Amino acid sequence: MIFERGHFIYEFWVARFSLLAGLWTTVSTSFLTIVIGSALGLVLGLVLAYGIWPLRFLARFYVDVIRGIPLLVLILFAYYGLALFKISVTPYWAGVIALSAFCVSHVAETVRGAIQSVPAGQDEAAKAIGLPFLKRVRYVILPQALRRVLPPWVNTALEMVKGTTLLSVIGVVELLLASQQAIARNYLILQFYLAATLFYFIVNFAIAQLAAALERRFRRFKY
Amino acid sequence: MLNYNFNWSVIWRNWDKFVDALLLGLGMAVVSLLIGTLIGLLVAYARGAGPRWLRWPAFVYVEFIRNVPLLLLVFFVYFGLPELGIYGLDKVQSFVLTLSLYAGAYMAEVFRAGLASIPRGYAEAARAIGLRPLQRQRYVILPVMFRITLPSITNNLVSLFKDTSLAAAIAVPELTFTARQVNANTFRVMESWLTATALYLFTAYAIAIVLRLVEKRYAVIR
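Above: the input entities. Below: the structure tokens describing the complete assembly.
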């Protein structure tokens, strides 16, 4: 009964390789996006907090524009628009570039907020013991700021994992599009969407709980 | 570096399309926010003060919606409901339903935090002057809660407006869909997407600025 054409278990087994390939694409795009976005976001956040004004202005402009438009528009723009700059990219990389650009602006804003939320006394004390600017940032401000970055950073990371589904619109076969392709073959609409939904839910919920646990641990370290 | 000749006439020729699309997106966002506010209030109360058998489903609803990609929910509702025998929703209604459920979960979190931040003294004082439980909520707790949560509601409206772009995936003629269509019909890549970008930016900031003024007017003075 179960191993018959038209039954979900059977169809799921038939589609296992394409679903796994889709899953891999979801994981790799998420990973690339989060790594690139966080690294550049940290730099941009520092610029927002400490940069000289022309740089700070440019960074602010970038962050505010990106945060003001929908991720899907960014993805489609990158997909159709990058070719005009003689940059020939596959949908995969157009998607990663767009997602990273989005991730950068969100991480940058979080980092700026965290840096500015470190009490002024910390910086003053560091100055008083004679630390130069870079050392103050490196040893005093950032360790405290990054702790505060953690919860919103995890939120952004989860947004990015969820955002990878938008790549299906430009034809990147990630988990959602792989599920849709399976659905197109066997019309098991509810079952396959439910499977994809459950997958996203379990992964994201697990990450969120992990982050909450980490946050509770970090709460012990107060000044 | 960029050897591209702009031709904006394409945009002017389709301008009313863009405006209609923008208004449709804005309308969907506002309706979803209103329905979502209602859902959010009920769920926040269920989670905060409801009986145990209600708390648990409320928790599952909020966590489920918040951890699943919106696009997946959109497809699920749009293709899944007919499968369950629920016909008669067109694509706009289907999308608004999805976005409302989505907004409901986020609003529930906002309201839960809002309710938790109101000092106990408010409820006690309301009780002391003889208000009934429903009156206490209606005349004392809720007005304060809405004032406290107004900034978060603003943020939610802006992000809901941006989320209406996902309706393009089920061919609702909103801004992203229109830009994509104009792009496909005319090959004016930069013009169509820059227009969509500008309209989204303008509207998102207009919403934010107007509601910030409202927030100032209703700010809680502590």
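Note for the figure: Chain A has one domain: 8-218.
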